[in-house]
Sequence to fold (408 residues):
Amino acid sequence: MKGIVKILFSVSLITLGLIIAVVPSVSAISQQDADSIYGGTTFYDPDSGAATGQCSDSSLSGSDNETKTWNYFKAKGLSDQQVAGIMGNILQESHFNPLIMQKGGESQNPADADPLGWGIIQWTPGSKVIDEAQQAGLSAPIYLLSTELDLVWQHMHNNPVVTQTFDMNAFESITDEKVAATYFRDHIEGGSDPGGVRETNATNILNQYAGTGGGASGGSTGTCGEVSTSNGDCSVSKIVYDAEYSQAQLTQIFGDPGTAGSHTAMDANLISVDFLGHSVQVNKLIAPCLQAVASDWKANNITYKIDSIGCYRFDSDNGGSNIGLRSYHTYGAACDINPNTNNFYSNGAPRPYDPNCPAASGVVDSGSCYNMPPDVIKIFAAHGFYWGGNFNSVKDYMHFEWHGVVPQ
Fold:
């Protein structure tokens, strides 16, 4: 729905530069305008007094996916020849593109590739990679290169077996890149290698990278306030804009919303993701951040049950709770969680609102005032989402909207 927000966190110039590079330049609302609209009130900062820098993140070292893959396996302690053998296969399967589909094109959703292959080693059918990642204990978004490399590493430890049982002791005794390529092909990829392409790839990669390597081999977590969070799943973390995006800013950041009669323009910017067992449709810009929330939710063993969640919808403009093209929901950039126990209030009650406010009227306003746990609010904030319970003109306790880009 609607609200305002304080800049909560800082972000490195490098990360900010990446975001600005992919988001069109828009004009920021002035502080004078913000004060006029929102009364000049002091906005919520859940980490006041806490660290203001980024949480420690999980990353792969290297300037491109090929180099990152080399460094990943080298950091696992494998020899140059063994890493080259693995990469000779991945080069043949995907050219190190974690989104590639065997039938052509790219997708963050492995099921889009069915019944053919998807991802860096072309899991077939693509949809099976989700179950295999769960078996391996991986919860980060599967479309990230780091997650797929982690899953390959787990396959090499038979967690789970993907083609044949993989004998790490036998593999680590291999001293020839071509033999390593063949072993990886037989036990992970399956199939054949006409013309020895994978072996040739391995030799070429060895010649290019021999004597180099190392770097980050996996994720690390940091502490942001009272809960553990990581930003390896999200391109921007712990930074939000200091006011509501205008309608023009929403369109430029998240894409053309279309009209009530035709959502085709926005459909191209939407993606379906799993959020703690619930399939939701969100803007592809915020999908990694929402899945980062889910990952941290699990990591912190939060037991709060989600009975209902909704994200994208084309809001009608009724001048109140639904504000049409000014609504974050219309752009797939907001989610409402458990509306029956986290109400929306716009009845003109005096500010500040009593946290023990009585139940409001209406279908979605029924029940107690709110029961959203503080740790859930903090995790959402760590990945760029602002909670509607901290709005000023209304209280929207069910609502989280993404303020992860600072317009320029």
Notes: Confidence is low (pLDDT under 50) at residues 1-58, 215-233, 362-367. Strands lie at 222-224, 227-229, 270-275, 278-283, 309-310, 334-337, 344-345, 385-387, 395-396, 399-402.
